Amino acid sequence: MKKLLSILFISLCCASLNSSADVERLKMATTTSTDNSGLLAVLNPPFEKKYNVKLDVISVGTGKAIRLGKNGDVDLIFVHAPEAEKNFVAEGSGIEREPVMHNDFIIVGPAADPAGLKNANNIVEAMAKLIEAKHVFVSRGDDSGTHKKEKDLWKNTGKEPTGDWYLAVGQGMGVVLRIADDKEAYTLTDRGTYLAYKDKMKLGVIFENDPGLFNPYHVIMVNPEKHPHTKIDMARKYSSFIRSGEGQNLIRNFKVNGEILFHPDVIK
What we know:
The protein is an alpha/beta fold. It has 11 helices and 12 strands. Strands 1, 2, 3, 4, 7, 8, 9 and 12 form an 8-stranded mixed β-sheet that branches. The longest helix is centred in the first third of the chain and has 21 residues, at about 1-20.
């Protein structure tokens, strides 16, 4: 009996080891917003189960995600900085840039709105009011998609944010929101991450719904001609999955406290 149990135990261990060895691993660099919002925890498991693959997700700012792609450290990227994405493809580092979803950027801040942003007619005027008021503003300062957008918005005012009121902290969106909340400051955030953290903060939405705050996300595969070791076939399967009916419905139905965080761009 003991011998039989030993054989069964060894067989089970071997089966487990073989099963683990058979699981392919796919490396993806993505923005903190897709991770912090909780979307990937819903989107990735069905894909992993379907293709017997494990997704190794590196959650960083878009700038760093693109650099990881350029270096061939990942198989694909899932980001939100259109101009940087186009450059990534144009220089031959990425292929098959495809739309996935969108949300929008918003400015959050203290309810008293000391800079008077609620009276602004457009986002350019709102950013100009921030510079004029010099109330504390927390910037990601990390070359992320959100930081790139913020820099473009300042540029449109024709002025630069300088002084002690402007804090570039070099952190992800979740950390920036907590810092801004502690300091009763303003910050620019994607709506999805704000909704995920909303119940933990006092800050509210101060400026929103401007066409200049549109925030699209794309998936791009790392070019296998530059980095032959990348897993292009599985990366393409992931791109297809999140853009398929199943993936797009998972995105559409993903909510936090009843609020939609992202809107699918492939299947309406």
